[in-house]
Amino acid sequence: MIQFTAMPPAIENLPRDERGYPVPWFVAWLANGQPEFRCMDRKKLVRAVKERRCWVCGERLDLKQHVFVIGPMCSINKTSAEPPCHEACAEFSARNCPFLTKPAAVRREANLPPDAQDGAGMPILRNPGVTCLWFCQGYQIRRLEEGFLFALPNPSRVKWFREGRQATRAEILESINTGLPLLRNVADQEGPDARRALDQMTDRALKFVPAT
């Protein structure tokens, strides 16, 4: 039997898959009636933006606070391809989602639906091993052909998780250091100004890493 941490009521009301996992609101459902966790429902993405709904449970958000579930690279460029969540839903996800809690988990690419698309922008598909909850007030939305990008302001606070528990500074830094080459390769192609900007963004992001 799967053991979860305390489940928020909004998540408890979600449908379950055959294993007993709650199916997040954003997940696409296939014609055979099964959820495809690797794919988002594009219509839900539009609704989440227009109606200010939690990306995980689908209920209305408190407009005074938003929580984005992001990886370390998103804490550097301060963008997310996914809408915000309730704090309780975000933390439940960070503590219980199989992909977020298992650093060795790899996103399966086989047998994806033919219309499956990655999120907007330039997604980094690796498993970063740590997850950041980014608490902020307000954000900006950029509409792109393939979806939306959410530009994040500086956070009021952050929480870092690894394997369903609070992440250590060493674990966070390891994830940042192993992911940075991906961003640096892109910046180097754009030129010296882009590389300097990336270095500055990295320095700012490190201020949000805990001391221990």
Largest sheet composition: 4 strands, antiparallel
Structural class: alpha+beta
| Euclidean distance between termini CA atoms | 34 Å
Q: Round the mean pLDDT to the nearest integer and report it.
A: 90
* Coarse morphology: globular
- How many beta-strand elements? 9
Structure notes:
The chain is an alpha+beta fold and 212 residues long. The chain has one domain. The chain contains seven helices and nine strands; from the N terminus they run H-E-E-H-E-H-E-H-H-E-E-E-E-E-H-H. Strands 3-5-8-9 form a four-stranded antiparallel β-sheet. Strands 4-7-6 form a three-stranded antiparallel β-sheet. The protein has a two-stranded antiparallel sheet with strand order 1-2. A hairpin with a 5-residue loop joins strand 1 (27-29) and strand 2 (35-40). Helix 6 runs antiparallel to helix 7. The longest helix is centred in the last third of the chain and has 22 residues, at 169-190. It is globular. It starts with 8 loop residues before the first helix and ends in a 6-residue tail after the last helix.
